[in-house]
Write a structure and sequence with these properties.
Elements lengths: L2 H9 L10 E2 L5 E2 L8 E2 L2 H16 L3 H4 L5 H13 L6 E4 L2 H14 L6 E5 L4 H14 L2 E5 L4 H4 L4 E7 L11 H11 L2 E5 L18 E4 L13 E5 L43 H12 L6 H23 L4 E2 L11 E5 L3 H10 L2 E2 L1 E3 L3 E5 L7 H17 L5 H4 L6
Bound molecules: pyridoxal-5'-phosphate.
Catalytic activity: 3-hydroxy-L-kynurenine + H2O = 3-hydroxyanthranilate + L-alanine + H(+); L-kynurenine + H2O = anthranilate + L-alanine + H(+)
GO molecular function, one term: pyridoxal phosphate binding
InterPro entries: Kynureninase, PyrdxlP-dep_Trfase, PyrdxlP-dep_Trfase_major, PyrdxlP-dep_Trfase_small
Length: 407
Amino acid sequence: MTPHDARALDRGDPLAFAKDRFRLPAGKTYLDGNSLGALPVATAVRVGETIRHQWGDDLIASWTGHDWIEAPFRVAAKLAPIVGARDGELLIADSTSVCLFKLLTAAVRARPDRRVIVTDAANFPTDLYVIEGAASLLGCEVRRVPAGGIADAIDADVAVVTLTHVDYRSGAKYDMAAVNAAAKAAGALTLWDLSHSAGAVELDLNGSGCDLAVGCGYKYFNGGPGAPAFLFVAEELQKELHSPLQGWMGHADPFAFSASYQPADGIGQYLTGTPSVLALAALDCGLDTFSGILMSAVAAKSRALSQLFIEEVERGCGDKVELAGPREPDARGSHVSFAHPHGYAVMQALIDGGVIGDFRAPNLIRFGFAPLYNSYAEVVRAAELLTEILNSASWDQPRFHARLKVT
Ligand SMILES: *Cc1c(COP(=O)(O)O)cnc(C)c1O
């Protein structure tokens, strides 16, 4: 495809208007929104107002005057239609790692006669660490199985099956409804990490029979570095499960200052300490970038962008890289990884040329496609630069081999 053809696709793109909701650096092709989402135009003004007029002028009265206290619920309500949940099933809180710990522990304690947690052996590292820590605290066994072996690993001893919906390396996507059905049939609960899928693929947490989920605010939701995460507890489980991290913000009446804990009704009990109001204001702007946009359109563009990228890369330099994930668009999320023995240096050369993706050890160059702000022209440009770098071996320079702390 020529850059001219790609620009024609962009002119026909029903989501092209959404790019104006972001402030993107000129001259760069940003394909790392799956790691840190781009900055929305509205964020700096909104956070500035929250600081100056709310915190600065109205001080502590802002908790009620500007309804800061309800922000974790108000922002969560914007997320509900994006992930297919009902109001009251989502909460913004903590980080993904902490939310995972809370829900995993709550789930295991709700199945006291079962002592096994099933997960994917190649799950995201923080998930594996949280699972290991929670299991040792709860006296559970962790059954780590390859992706293809999940269904066979679910038996009557399993309390929870916890998986990342879209694999952070390969982009492979689980069939959420099938896993949920298998777990339900065996009496186990499911807990999904949606960090690499929410905001880029279509989700129907209710329709697919999902019990519990967590996800990230700073990837496809553009909430800013270290944005708070979200958690989901299906309505029918809310009476049965209890947050293990009891804090005053999850109390039924925090300002009664009672000496004993009484959990709030509903999802509110999963709050622990005081919510991060400035971070919530930024995440609110991140979620506003989805306003008026159907997730079916987002998912369709995600498939089209990633498919075009695979085709263009394989046509240009397919003899030098190997696709490290599913070829079938419906079987993956919104990022694409290629294996190359010197992947680190190749990615540094790409970044030097203005195409920003990332590197995942041991040998993957990874490209994320954020349907709200990435274009077909950018996809073609990225594939062209990669082809040029690989065919000329221009990546093989000392400056591209020096390892940075964050890859
Ligand atoms: C990005 C990501 C996280 C991030 O966890 P934090 O606690 O926010 O650092 C967790 N799990 C997965 C699968 C991720 O992709």
